[in-house]
Amino acid sequence: QVASDKGLFSIVINVQVPGSTHYSMVFYFVTGKLVPGSLLQRFVDGDDEFRNSRLKLIPSVPKGSWIVRQSVGSTPCLLGKAVDCNYIRGPNYLEIDVDIGSSTVANGVLGLVIGVITSLVVDMAFLIQALFRANTTEELPERLLGAVRVSHVELKSAIVPVLDSDSSSS
Predict the structure, then answer these.
(1) By the 8 A CB rule, do 41 and 124 touch?
(2) DSSP class of residue 133?
(3) How many helices (DSSP H) and strands (DSSP E) are in the chain?
(4) What is the largest CA-CA distance in the chain?
(5) Going along the chain, which residue ranges are E strands?
(6) Residue 86 and residue 76: Cα distance in Å, rounded?
(7) What would the pLDDT profile of 1-53 be if each residue is shown by its tens digit?
(8) What pLDDT, in 10s, does the model give residues 42-82?
């Protein structure tokens, strides 16, 4: 809301983590106005098929057990091809809901990670993949949406947001 009030554009990535208790990790990336015709503008205003073919995650585990580092790896992955993504386009934002539970492979990796999450450091870079066409570089280089480091997460410190039902009327 603060970014929107200042005329800025936000990309919100909501990584939904299933389990006996469901969690969400929500990352906000803010930019200025969208440049018409830019890769970012085409991604934001594109259809889900376009977005799914372009949203890329590059993971890394700089601190963690060997088995977790091997399982997560650092191979780039098209998120929309690996898991279900839901896109919600608002006036000054794009929310991307990433459903980790929609993939058996992602769920398997998550099973390894959750048990040792307090000892892990996980880096995630979110990019918009450029298409490599012969004899053209119009989309190069790829565009970084943002990067995050999740470090030594304590799940017991997660909170349930209290939504004020009266806040929409003020």
Answers:
(1) no
(2) B
(3) 6, 8
(4) 57
(5) 9-17, 23-31, 55-63, 77-78, 84-90, 93-99, 121-128, 143-151
(6) 20
(7) 777 777 789 999 999 888 777 888 899 999 988 888 888 899 999 999 999 99
(8) 999 999 999 999 999 999 888 888 877 777 777 888 999 99
Inter-residue contact 146 to 29 (CB < 8 Å): yes
Per residue in 113-148, is it b (16+ CB within 10 Å) or e — as a string?
beeebeebebbbbbbbbbeeeeeeeebeebbebeeb
| Domain spans in the chain, listed from the N-terminal domain onward | 4-156
The count of C-alpha atoms lying within 13 angstroms of the C-alpha of 144, restricted to the half-sphere facing its C-beta, is: 6
Identity at 4, one-letter amino acid code: S
Residues 6+ apart with CB under 8 A from 69: 61
Closest CA to 129 of 45, 43, 44: 43
